[in-house]
Amino acid sequence: MKTDFLADLDLTDEERARIEDVGDALQVTLAEPFTYKHSKLDGERTLTQLHLVKRVKGKHMKAMDKAQGEISQGLALVAALAGLPSHAMDELDARDMDLVMELVSPFLPKSRGTGTP
């Protein structure tokens, strides 16, 4: 995930201010921190930021295969890029979801039109 593509995204100044390039990742400060359990054996964790790796690999893209629906696939990709379980994204606030979905949108499958190529 390269940061030069950020210039092409439709983001507000407030949204851009919440994104920081930290080398190998984009750090996104959440408007609404959330709490989740990594596993049944773990205690609760609170996230105030998401760290999304910029180098998208096949393993990240494969995470989308397990999800059905466009939003679920996008959130599965976000979880994989952040190194989080996919169920953690269930707690992501809609404003934060909108921002991270915009960040990962270049990597999501494109809808294909009907007709001849």
What's the structural blueprint in terms of helices and strands?
Layout: H1 13-17, E1 19-21, E2 25-37, E3 44-53, H2 58-62, H3 70-82, H4 94-104
Antiparallel strand pairs: 1-2, 2-3
Helix pairs in contact: 3-4
Brief descriptors of the model:
3-stranded antiparallel sheet; globular; alpha+beta; 4 helices
Give your account of this protein's structure:
Strands 1-2-3 form a 3-stranded antiparallel beta sheet. α3 packs across α4 (94-104). It has 4 helices and 3 strands; from the N terminus they run αβββααα. The mean pLDDT is 87. With 117 residues, the protein is α+β, with helices and mostly antiparallel strands. It has one domain. A hairpin with a 3-residue loop joins β1 and β2 (25-37).
Number of strands: 3
Share of residues in strands:
15-25%
Structural class: alpha+beta
| Helix-strand pattern | HEEEHHH
Globally, the shape reads: globular
Summarize this entry quickly.
29% of the residues lie in helices and 22% in strands.
